[in-house]
Design brief:
The protein is α+β, with helices and mostly antiparallel strands. It contains 2 helices and 9 strands, in the order E-E-E-E-E-E-E-E-E-H-H.
């Protein structure tokens, strides 16, 4: 099924960011948000309606300004808001899109998990004596 395309003018453009807590891998990161009202018009230029459009992601590439004419593919509507990952700016002839999370961030997180679970394994299997480590620390750093 092909997505429906809507062409209109950007109104009430807002940019911001929001903390992402959707999963542990993204905790503490901030998602960029780009939202605007898409003013729909007929062939004579009369306003026929509006769509609320929103983009969210770690990094939004491309540029859009108030009054730009854009083409948005409507894939998913959530609570009356068109959630999109990209659209075409017809005024500047450029694409505005959400860039994905970097592979570097994924690899760093994977290494962190491996180290964490390796240490946890050694603690639980008795290879590392936590009580001995605490007593040694208390002896070296008396209160």
């Amino acid at each position: 099924m092909k997505a429906k395309t809507q062409i209109g003018v950007v109104r009430n453009l807002r940019r911001g960011d929001e903390g992402s807590t959707s999963n542990i891998a993204q905790a503490g990161k901030r998602d960029q948000i780009l939202s605007f009202r898409l003013e729909l018009t007929d062939a004579t230029g009369d306003i026929t309606g509006y769509l609320q459009v929103e983009m969210r992601g770690e990094n939004i590439a491309g540029d859009v300004a108030e009054g730009d004419r854009v083409e948005v593919e409507v894939h998913k509507v959530r609570d009356g808001i068109v959630a999109t990952k990209s659209f075409q700016n017809l005024t500047t002839h450029s694409r505005v899109y959400v860039r994905g999370r970097s592979i570097f961030a994924f690899i760093t997180f994977a290494i962190f998990l491996i180290v964490f679970f390796t240490i946890l394994y050694f603690i639980l299997s008795g290879w590392i004596d936590v009580n001995h480590a605490i007593k040694t620390f208390e002896r070296v750093h008396p209160q």
